[in-house]
Structures are given as structure tokens and as C-alpha cells.
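Reviewer 2 asked us to include a model.

Predict the structure of this chain.
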Amino acid sequence: MIARTADLMGIEHLGIGTDLCQNQPVSILEWMRNGRWSKDMDYGEGSASNADWPRPLPWLRDSRDFPNLIAGLRAVGMSEEEVAGIMGKNWVALLERTATKREAVLY
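Predicted model (C-alpha cells):
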């Protein structure tokens, strides 16, 4: 999925965002699924009979399994530089670009 998205959008625009929310109550999940704009319950990948947190993927239980992502990116032929970008450097580059623009506007 990451390789296909890279083909569509460019690898420099990709970065891992885990959305891992471990040990949080279901009320947090409900808030994330519905925000403040909707009055209808959105169960996301769940249902009314299964509204709890989704079970983690067996290969990505939490950040300790990031090596599995890295291995998968390498397996589809991504270079070490591309893997490093997706795993964090692209986020750093984005933050640096936006901070520079914000500073230019402020001064």
C-alpha cells in the first residue's frame, strides 16, 4: 500500500503516522470517530455490536514492530534513504519547511 501511494504521490510526501492509542477508554475512540461535527455514530471499522477498539494487526501491534514496516519497505525495493524518509525524515522536512514559512510571516 505504501509503495502504491509513493507511485501516486511521490515518496517525499509520505510519512508514517501510527494513530496508536493504547490503553485509552472507548470514550476517546468515540470522540475520534465522531469529532464534533456529526451527530450520527460512526463505528469506523467496527459496528454497533462491536464498537470497541480494533484489534492490532499481528505484525504491527505497536511501535516495537516498526522493524516489520522497514523490512516491508526494503522488500518492495525502496532505498535506505527512501525508507528513512517514510519512517520519519519526511516529517522532519515538512516541519522544517513550515517553521521557516511561519517565521518569515512573523518577521
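The chain has a mean pLDDT of 83. Residues 2-106 form one domain. We have added this to the supplementary material.
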